[in-house]
């Protein structure tokens, strides 16, 4: 049951207190790959499990009840496409699901859109705005294949955080883009569900004397920039949002995660969560993070979803480039008198024009 969605920028004392504990089980999957002994990528997620979760969610009768978060993020990503003042002839939506981006895309921005997803049921039910030409393609984001230099735009919303080999995925996307093509995506970040993670860890420490991973690892913000740069993208823009959703209890949150097909699919996940541990975690969750609404006399618990938004361009000779080091005319130590410097420059130019 969704009570409210609020975008917030906050850092509570509780979050700081348990940040170290949360990091114990939320180590970025990119770091796991870097530590691979043989130089190859480490398989963190069970792709077969994730495909089954998505297929099950796609055919559920109440699937519409769980679209609220992905609808919101898809709308925001579509809005970012409008910010680029050009019309893209051919674009691809990787992990389109039920059309969380495509339903908001205007034919004034994209002429033709390739909808890609692992689930045929999702492709059959996808929603697209009127006037946009579409093609549908069953594609696993672990093995992205497009014609080289064929796409003007690649978009993806809340999908790529389940990819085992992100460096490979980014390189394949870059290969498919034309010069000066754009890649835009949103993924869950490392602080996602930190309240649930810390509550489960504390409950298991109390009841079992140890910690088992129940929440999948998420990519960190610092890793996204370095991976995009290594793949070959330029003019990067990376920012984060926090979406906080309030639920009656922890159990409604876990049920909605299952309905969103965002259940844990890590290979080393603990498949069983004891009943007494669940109730202990719910009590800890309410105690540490719970809220009480005096107007309705109801309790609720917040769940934080950190969204990492990324944008990168495929290199092109005509793209703006940074000026060479040492060519600056104003020292950083003089920034406090920037207004005076600008006035002097304008005066000099005006005098030159009069002459």
TrEMBL record:
InterPro entries found in the cross-reference section: Malonyl-ACP_OMT (IPR050602), Methyltransf_11 (IPR013216), SAM-dependent_MTases_sf (IPR029063)
Keywords, in A-Z order: Methyltransferase, Transferase
Record domain Methyltransferase type: where: 93-184
Organism domain of life: Eukaryota
Entry keyword annotation includes Methyltransferase: yes
Listed name of the protein: Arginine-hydroxylase NDUFAF5, mitochondrial
């Amino acid at each position: 049951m969704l009570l409210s969605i609020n975008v917030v920028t906050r850092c509570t004392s509780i979050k700081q207190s348990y940040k170290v504990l949360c990091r114990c089980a939320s180590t970025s999957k990119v770091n796991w790959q870097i530590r691979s002994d043989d130089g190859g990528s480490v398989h963190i997620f069970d792709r077969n499990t994730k495909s089954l979760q998505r297929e099950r969610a796609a055919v559920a009768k109440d699937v519409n009840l769980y679209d609220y978060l992905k609808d919101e993020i898809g709308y925001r990503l579509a809005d970012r496409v409008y910010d680029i003042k050009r019309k893209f002839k051919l674009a691809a939506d990787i992990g389109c699901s039920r059309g969380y981006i495509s339903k908001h895309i205007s034919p004034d921005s994209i002429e033709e859109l390739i909808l890609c997803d692992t689930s045929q049921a999702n492709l059959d039910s996808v929603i697209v705005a009127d006037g946009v030409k579409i093609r549908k393609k069953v594609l696993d984001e672990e093995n992205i294949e497009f014609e080289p230099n064929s796409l003007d735009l690649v978009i993806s919303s809340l999908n790529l955080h389940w990819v085992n080999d992100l460096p490979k995925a980014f390189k394949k996307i870059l290969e498919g883009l034309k010069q000066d093509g754009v890649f835009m995506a949103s993924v869950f970040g490392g602080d996602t569900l930190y309240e649930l993670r810390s509550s489960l860890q504390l409950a298991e420490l109390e009841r079992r004397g140890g910690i088992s991973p129940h929440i999948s690892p998420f990519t960190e913000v610092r890793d996204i920039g370095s991976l995009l740069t290594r793949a070959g993208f330029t003019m990067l823009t990376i920012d984060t949002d926090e979406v906080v959703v309030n639920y009656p209890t922890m159990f409604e949150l876990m049920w909605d995660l299952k309905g969103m097909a965002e259940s844990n699919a890590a290979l080393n996940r603990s498949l069983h969560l004891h009943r007494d541990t669940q109730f202990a975690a719910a009590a800890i969750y309410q105690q540490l993070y719970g809220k009480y609404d005096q107007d309705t006399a109801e309790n609720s618990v917040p769940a934080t979803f950190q969204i990492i938004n990324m944008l990168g361009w495929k290199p092109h000779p005509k793209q703006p480039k940074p000026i060479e080091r040492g060519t600056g005319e104003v020292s950083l130590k003089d920034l406090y008198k920037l207004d005076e410097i600008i006035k002097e420059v304008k005066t000099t130019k005006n005098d030159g024009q009069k002459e």
